[in-house]
Design goal:
homodimer, 359 residues, alpha/beta, Rossmann fold, 3 domains, 7-stranded mixed beta sheet, 6-stranded parallel beta sheet, DNA-binding
Chain lengths: 359, 359
DNA sequence: CACCTTCGTTGGATCGATTCAAATTTTTGC
DNA sequence: GCAAAAATTTGAATCGATCCAACGAAGGTG
């Protein structure tokens, strides 16, 4: 009563073939192409299967023969719960899900606590290809995945290794859009809350660090900001850039630093909505009104940005579309390496306005 | 340059064994138990692997031998994006993720547009067991899964089939907690916004429908509500119960109905936070103040309930804990069927207060 | 020097199916 | 009633590894 796995040895297809008095070939056909088996035989085999408690062809065996798993792996160095917690990841996964649903493919989530386990999990994941969430440790993840010799796509053009397929957005254009919006509103005193330029670094960023950035996405956003600002006559050498780890602690530390200045910024360019929303909170707690005293522009366009207080002006990426394309790239893999860049869009909400004392 | 899959036929372990002049047994050992192979030989084999561009032992082959996939399947009849959209599912998945991370297991998401595909996907999923999200069509999902003859756990004690393992909460106790809270605040005019009692039904519910409920979770919550209310002298026969589909449209339709009454309720017992939050919105749009005019109590305890306007009083389930336990049940499957019931907790927030005209 | 360990290596068996060319049976055509 | 065509069935080969009993070569011992 309490046991599901009664019989010691699981029943194999060969067992029921024998019981029904047919060859394995025929028994196999009964399950995979029943229409080519004579009805009488089909019934006999099915009856035998029923009698022996056969669970149907084991996918493990089928897989080996077929070669295709019909599932795509999504890997990250973050813990698995990242996929369900992080707003950006969630929208991305929704896009991936959509493409998978359309073709009936499954999704296998791959992650691991430590590097060694991650390597193992990537090596042994039963998938037809990988989508890589390159947050921290992107290069390492790419390296590990490359060894599998399966198709894979990196999300965000983190590094510019031209030999790996990738899908991302035009970060320079996004940066310019954000900067222009604020500059046109009249702002001239800016500060940047950036994402990582390299692993394990945080704090104010030097031009040298920008030049040697590992994460070119971060660098490109900054380049976009600065290019546009200089067109408005802002001395970009004086714009402080604080590198955060895209979390509460480092963002707040950054704000402490930036606002300790004699000439605090009237406009903050944040490289993620996450950071921007943390900033909103910090500013509100300090009694600094947004957008009256300070304007904030985020980057990403996650759903939460529309409902936070105040709603966030941001550079929206087509996150779900990136996910859909990435999934399709694996699903209809054609053996080529392609790097795709999608456009971004400025979404103006209530977190940005003219600088104080402008009318 | 553009091709990743250069060589026509993928390289097998046997190929490198031949190239290195060793048996396939030894070649296998080089990868799976390198310490038992003499260094000189090990190097030779690795060199051969490198030279031939061998991707390492193919998990497909290994799997067949090993038997264990080291991944657990999470199945639902909803589309895949449900896992990333729905607040309840997300917290649950976070719990499952945690347990999987701890043991290094992977997660395979299983779903499908239509019934036929779902059946196929469940049959062919490469997993060691299933966790079933039994929302709509729970019984069908259980039936399909049972055929795989793998361990599985149903989430929510939807049906009371004692032959399937399940983990859920004490719905009766939860219902009582919610009802008592409102009754103690002084409310005497109640209405219930319920979840489904059976598939494809919606609208006001008759005692007959309650008695023949397919979804016993829904029934139990209602039973809890009514039991407790009657202890406070409320005539439970007069408490309207409106069955929703846990979505905006049916919830709002329910509210239209309930508030069209000559004696509209002062307290709403909602069987999910989702429904409760829709109610909050509807009430606010109608200018009905919560909790001044009407109190609302939800059920679930999703994170959103804490940050909606006003924050929702609710019956919190240990959602993540349910997920963790479910995952562990599959991971350390011992062949037994067990039904587990966890406790719930009343979380009082701002959506509930004394009825109007109470001072 | 015969004998026993110990360490590494070998190669056949196995995991559970699918596939396909060839063999067999049934149908059809005349 | 017989040959050709069509429909079924067969069984060996294959997918890609791991496992393990048996074997061979050093090294140690009395």
């Amino acid at each position: 009563m309490a046991s599901l796995t009664k019989g010691r040895r699981p029943i194999r297809l060969a067992d029921i073939a024998k019981a029904a008095g047919v060859s394995h070939g025929t028994a196999s056909n009964v399950f995979s192409r029943p229409e080519i088996v004579r009805e009488e035989v089909r019934e006999r085999v099915k009856a035998a299967a029923e009698a022996l408690g056969y669970a149907g062809p084991d996918p493990k065996g089928r897989l080996l023969r077929a070669g295709k798993v019909n599932a795509i792996g999504v890997a990250t160095t973050e813990p698995l719960s990242y996929f369900f917690d992080d707003p950006f990841a969630r929208v991305m996964m929704a896009g991936i899900s959509e493409a998978c649903d359309a073709t009936g493919a499954g999704i296998a989530l791959v992650s691991a606590g430590n590097e060694e386990k991650l390597a193992w999990n990537i090596q042994s994941a039963l998938v037809d290809g990988f989508i890589l969430f390159c947050i921290e440790g992107g290069p390492r993840l790419v390296e590990l995945t490359r060894e599998r010799k399966l198709p894979f796509v990196a999300l965000e053009l983190g590094s510019q290794d031209a030999t790996v397929s990738a899908i991302g957005v035009d970060n320079v254009a996004g940066g310019r859009l954000a900067a222009r919006h604020l500059a046109e509103l009249g702002h001239r005193r800016f500060a940047v809350l950036s994402l990582a330029f390299a692993d394990d670094s945080t704090g104010l960023v030097s031009p040298e660090q920008v030049r040697t950035a590992v994460y070119t996405g971060t660098r490109d956003r900054l380049l976009g900001y600065l290019e546009e600002l200089s067109r408005f006559g802002v001395d970009t050498a004086k714009v402080p850039v604080y590198e955060t780890e895209n979390d509460e602690a480092s963002t707040k530390a950054g704000l402490e630093t930036l606002f300790a200045s004699a000439e605090p910024p009237t406009a903050i360019l944040a490289m993620s909505d996450r950071v921007a929303m943390e900033a909103l909170e910090w500013l509100s707690a300090r009694g600094i009104a947004v957008p009256r005293d300070v304007s904030v522009v985020g980057f990403d366009g996650v759903p939460e940005a529309a409902i936070c207080e105040p709603p966030l002006t941001t550079i929206a990426q087509p996150i779900a579309e990136i996910g859909r394309r990435a999934a399709r790239r694996i699903l209809d893999f054609d053996g080529t390496v392609r790097r795709e860049t999608l456009g971004v869009e400025l979404v103006v909400r209530a977190s940005s306005g003219p600088p104080p004392g402008t009318g």
